[in-house]
Every structure is written in C-alpha cells, then in structure tokens.
UniProtKB/TrEMBL annotation:
UniProtKB keywords: ATP-binding, Coenzyme A biosynthesis, Cytoplasm, Kinase, Nucleotide-binding, Transferase
GO cellular component assignments: cytoplasm
Encoding gene per record: coaE
Lineage: Bacteria, Bacillati, Chloroflexota, Anaerolineae, Anaerolineales
EC number(s) on file: 2.7.1.24
Name of the protein: Dephospho-CoA kinase
Organism expressing this protein natively: Candidatus Brevifilum fermentans
Catalysis: reaction(s): 3'-dephospho-CoA + ATP = ADP + CoA + H(+)
Length: 369
C-alpha cells in the first residue's frame, strides 16, 4: 500500500511494453504514474537533484541554456554501470518521495506505477502486486529500431546493459507477454486487473459527470462487443487502431442515455494533456464546451498540469478555445521544460502557436521550493 492506495507496480526491460500496459490500466480507470517522467523532472533547474547531479557529473553535462542534457548524461550513464548507480542514488529517493506525495494527492483506491527500476529502487516493497512485461530480444530489437530509431549497435547496447528479464520474473505476481497483438495485450491486462481488484471493496469504474445528461467513462465499463461497435461507427477506424490507442493514448467515451456518442482521445505525457482527436468530428463542432469540459475533468483526474490543443485538431476552424480559457502561445515561450517539450511535439516542432490552459503548477518544483 502507498498511503491507502492498493498499488500495482509495473516493471520490465526496455521496449517490453511497460508503458503500453500503464496506458491500458489508465484506460481502465486507474490513476497511474510513470517514474521515468518524474525522474526526468528531478533534473530540471531549481530541484535539489539538479545541483547534486551537476556537482557529481560536472558542468559538461549542461546545455547552453543551463539545463542538464539528458542526451549527454545518458551517454555517460548508459555506458558506465557505476555512473548509472551514482545517478540513481541521487535521483531515486526524490522520485520515491514524489510518487508517495502524488499518490496521496490522488486519493484513489487502486493506482499503478511504471518503473524500470521498480525492484532495485526499493519501490516494489511498497507495491501490493508486481506486474512484469515481457517480449523476446528479437521483439525488443525490432521495436527499438523502428519506434526509437536506434541503430542495431545502440539497441543491443541498451538491451544488454539491463539485467536479464528472468531476474524480474522471480518477483512477479503477473507476467504479461506483449509479443502478439495490442488486443491480446489489452485482454491480458484486463484479465490481470480483474483478478487483482476482486478483493478491493471500494474500487469503482471511472465515471465523470459532465452535465445533467452527459458523462464520461473508462472504456472497459462497456462490454467489448458494444465498445467495438461504437468505435467502428463513430470513428470509422479499424479495431486494430482501437486497441493500439488504448495502449498509447487516453481514450474517454462520452455517453448519453447509456450509449457512447463520442470518443475524446488525448495524449498524456509527463503530466501534460494534448488533445489528439475527437470522434465524430461533427460532434466536436456541435458541442465544443462539452468536449473541453470532459477533456479537462479527465485530465485533472490524471494530475495533468497543462492542457494543450494544436490548431490542426480544431476541425473546420469554427471552434474557439479562447472561449474556454485557453491562451495562444509559442511553445518556445513556455518555460517549464516538460510542458515546452509536449507543446513542441504537438505542433510537430514547427514554430507555430499552440492553445494552452494551465491547470496546476508543477508538483515537483512546488515540493522542491
Ligand atoms: C539518463 C537519463 C537522463 C536519460 O534520459 P532520456 O530522456 O534520454 O531517456 P529516458 O529517461 O526516456 O530513458 C530511455 C530508456 O532508458 C532506460 N532507462 C532509463 N533509466 C534507466 C535506468 N536507471 N536503468 C536502466 N535503464 C534505464 C529505459 O528503458 C528508458 O525507456 C534518464 O534516463 C535518467 O535520469 N535515468 C536515471 C533515473 C532513473 O533511474 N529513472 C528511472 C526511474 S525508475
Ligand atoms: N501487442 C503489443 N503490446 C504492447 N506493445 C506492443 C505490442 N505490439 C507492438 N508493441 C510495441 O512495443 C513497444 C513497447 O513499448 P513500451 O514503450 O510500452 O515499452 P517500455 O517497456 O515502456 O519501454 P521503455 O523501458 O523504453 O520505456 C511499443 O512501441 C509498442 O507499439
């Protein structure tokens, strides 16, 4: 237990599917944290670890703007086990403290934490269940080559720098093989979740009241056949897309009269929320207030600090986010690094303005102050 939350710890080696499983649990209504994102925030100027890491690794890991360069630091620590251990010793205590604080703030009966070093950092001692993702070396290599654009040599070095996957199995309550389809990974994740929550009395599916008639729910609250039918009708996309989305995006079903009428898809990254698609497009045109409200409430549940909407998402151009308290800004003007990176990704790194709405100040900098 962390605070009074039943905690599922997700771990596994690189590219074995941890993040996909965390997203799938989030789409089943669970609040979840990614230790990697939190660790990254610990390196931003102003935090306690920032100065300690600079003292330990020297000013040559700084960028011209005075930030710690992940790339430079990564080149050092991923090629030197002792250096990685030194970095972890500085960062992990702060990461664990933040995870505890965030879980306490969320106040949810069941939560998940994804961490590559769940066991080694001691976090697993606070988890009620440990889930381990698995994919073979060949799958890891293929995934790193395609989605991370690493060379064979780089991918091999990353994989081989981690302990064998079998070491993690010894700690696992659940092992999820992710080598087949996204649908199969979804089914395995839901099955393991159902087994896990059977004993938890106060677990209730996510239900967001938006207005008198409308509510948002997590997609696992409707039977699979009904969900698949609604997806095909409303999105005109394939079922493969549905299950891939469930592993990479937040998918909120908007319902009225017990029927799904729309899907709001957004990307959750490092406590930012970027609106991705609304299906059907005409629904967004007709009911922008409802969509923005649902997006904000769902994002708040996940402790999102900034909402982002790129102009290209606004379909026919009739939707005016300023009416819903969004401001237009250039990504470069956003000063908090994680928010700026998310905004840059949302506009595909073009120097275009983006709509933003700040919901909360970064938790880590508040705690560091
Ligand atoms: C070295 C850093 C700065 C590199 O940052 P960068 O943004 O380039 O990479 P990112 O954090 O996204 O990690 C890339 C991949 O490396 C692997 N990785 C990250 N941290 C570790 C680690 N401590 N041990 C082994 N592998 C790791 C993961 O598979 C991850 O997907 C960063 O990874 C870091 O600070 N790591 C140490 C903190 C840590 O232990 N994080 C994990 C928390 S459980
Ligand atoms: N059936 C599947 N289930 C899960 N992932 C799959 C599946 N098929 C393909 N993949 C791909 O495998 C990759 C798994 O990546 P993911 O980011 O979840 O791994 P990870 O363990 O979190 O890696 P890292 O340690 O680098 O953060 C993704 O690129 C995903 O698209």
């Amino acid at each position: 237990m962390i605070d009074s939350s039943f905690t599922i710890g997700i771990t596994g080696n690189i590219a074995t599917g941890k993040s996909v499983i965390r997203h799938m649990l989030a789409n089943a209504g669970l609040f979840g944290l990614d230790a990697d994102s939190i660790a990254n925030r610990m390196l931003y100027p102003g935090t306690q670890s920032y100065q300690q890491v600079l003292d330990a690794f020297g000013p040559e890991i700084k960028t011209e703007q005075g930030q710690i360069s992940n790339k430079k630091l990564g080149q050092i620590v991923f090629n030197d086990q002792r250096a990685l251990e030194k970095l972890e010793a500085l960062v992990h205590p702060e990461v664990i403290k933040t995870i505890f604080n965030r879980i306490q703030a969320a106040g949810q009966p069941v939560v998940s934490i994804e961490a590559i070093k769940l066991i080694e950092s001691g976090l697993s001692n606070h988890c009620d269940k440990i889930w381990v993702s698995y994919a073979s070396f060949d799958h890891q290599m293929r995934r790193l080559r395609s989605s991370r654009a690493l060379t064979d040599q780089e991918a091999k070095a990353r994989i081989n720098s981690q302990p064998p996957q079998i070491d993690k199995f010894a700690h696992a309550d659940v092992i999820i093989n992710t080598e087949t389809t996204f649908k199969e990974t979804w089914i395995r994740t839901q099955r393991a979740l159902n087994d896990t929550i059977q004993s938890i009395n106060d677990f209730a599916p996510l239900h967001i009241n938006i207005s008198k008639d409308w509510f948002g729910t997590s997609v696992n609250t409707v039977p699979a056949t009904q969900l698949e039918r609604a997806w095909k009708e409303l999105t005109r996309q394939s079922l493969t897309d549905l299950y891939e989305c469930l592993g990479s995006k937040m998918v909120l079903a908007l319902s009225k009269n017990e029927h799904i009428q729309a899907f709001v898809l957004w990307e959750s990254w490092n406590f930012s929320g970027t609106l991705n698609r609304v299906f059907p497009g005409e629904f967004f045109e007709a009911q922008p207030a409802l969509v923005f409200d649902a997006f904000e409430k769902h994002a708040q549940f996940h402790q999102v600090e900034i909402l982002l909407v790129a102009q290209k998402i606004l379909e026919a151009g009739e939707i005016r986010p300023e009416q819903f308290a969004f401001d237009l800004q250039l990504p470069a003007q956003i000063t908090y690094p994680a928010w700026q990176i998310a905004a840059q990704k949302a506009v595909c790194n073009t120097p275009t303005s983006i709509w933003q709405k700040v919901l909360a100040q970064p938790f880590e900098s508040i705690n560091a102050a």
